[in-house]
Amino acid sequence: MKQKRRGLWPLLYGTVLVLFTAYVLLDTFVIPRRYAAVESTSSSGTTTAVSSETGQTATAAKATVTADSYDDGTVSIKITTYRVDNTSVYVADVTLSDPSALQTAFALGTFGKNITQTTSSIAQSAGAILAINGDYYSARSGYVIRNGVLYRSTSAGSSQEDLMIYADGTFDIVTEGETTAEALLAAGAQQVLSFGPGLVEDGQVAVTANEEVDQAMTNNPRTAIGMISPLHYVLAVADGRTTQSTGLSLYQLASFMQELGVQTGYNLDGGGSSTMVFNGTVINQPTTNGKTIAERKVSDIVCIG
Amino acid sequence: MSASDKKQLRRSALAYLYTAVGCGAFSLIYEHFSHGVYSPFMIGLFAVPLLFGLLPLGWLLFSKGGAPGRLPRQLWGSAAAALTVGVCLRGVFDIYGTTVALVSVYWWAGGLLAAAALVSWLMSRGRAEVH
After folding, report:
1. B98–A6: do the CB atoms touch at under 8 Å?
2. Sheet strands side by side (includes A300-304)
3. Interchain CB contact of B120 with A (< 8 Å)
4. Half-sphere exposure of B106 (CA within 13 A, CB side)
5. pTM: predicted TM-score of the whole model, two decimal places
6. Largest alpha-carbon pair distance within chain B?
7. What is the ipTM score, two decimals?
8. Which tens digit of pLDDT belongs to each residue from A24-61?
9. Are the C-beta atoms of residues A24 and B86 closer than 8 Å to each other?
């Protein structure tokens, strides 16, 4: 009897520890949760570019589309592949006549946690011509404003750098410690992406050679977006973790963006998430383990629609 | 300290040592496949059972006091388990690139259990000295 009681505490405690740990893991990686928006200044509150589906249909008839270009008179896209530091980098040079064509979209059109789809699936639902993965907001904290709607106002830390896209399509790098999400919305933020860091500011490389995302210290697949001039953008995705492409450091990516003429450049979620979709086709080699070329499911995209 | 006490402590020390070695092996394998993304929590995982287990037990082994009873030993082991799992999860989440508020439960549980173990041990020592 005494022997039985002796083993009771380890058994009970071990069971609680295992069950709680299982819950933490499921809550973090598996259980989907939908969250409501906090605040909106936009009359068109829908996040995904559902309305742009009709927009693309209307313009598709007069668009000139090739394997690496698109032009419908209001949106012009040219895809070019570069080799940079033993890495393939896919660059979409985008010129818009209407800043509202630069959009973002959530997986399944829903803001939440563990709600994911591949970049190509989200792009298809949003009717996007061109898409790259976004900031994977659901795996991180930080401000989330999309298409003029404030979804999350909790900061990822005082030094967290965000990309703010105004309604007129201009870019700015802001630091969460110096402002609030509500203030950014009031200042006219149409999109706020929270990954970072800022790569190029005022045409100058804004990262050091040793700077990295959190604990990442090596070359990796990368996704970045930059503004050359108002309504003239570059969306860049670098392959990595393969024998064909080693990947880029943040400094290499920033230097490359600067060479493209970017005035404001920002690093988005990289690694296995890095994906570029053009006209329904994935054009880079997304990989998570260096062996399997496959799209990872992400929570959001930046797209041209 | 009696021979049976010493035997008990050596057995506990070995259990902590094996856990530390296992944690170290897990960290090495996990970091190997993390594409150069490092977390100090994952790298230092082995140190939790090592510090929690070996150092206090080593001190007790070579001190003149008696071995702690079953209750403080179990509470101390529970604290070590909570903190080891918490540090491991924090490492996994760091490498994945996310932050999880629930991890703080492990720090609180570990701290409270460790404190309870110390109090329990000191109380049992006090009782022993009185008798």
Report:
1. no
2. A102-106, A300-304, A130-133, A276-278, A281-282
3. no
4. 22
5. 0.82
6. 60
7. 0.91
8. 999 999 999 999 888 765 544 334 433 333 444 444 55
9. no
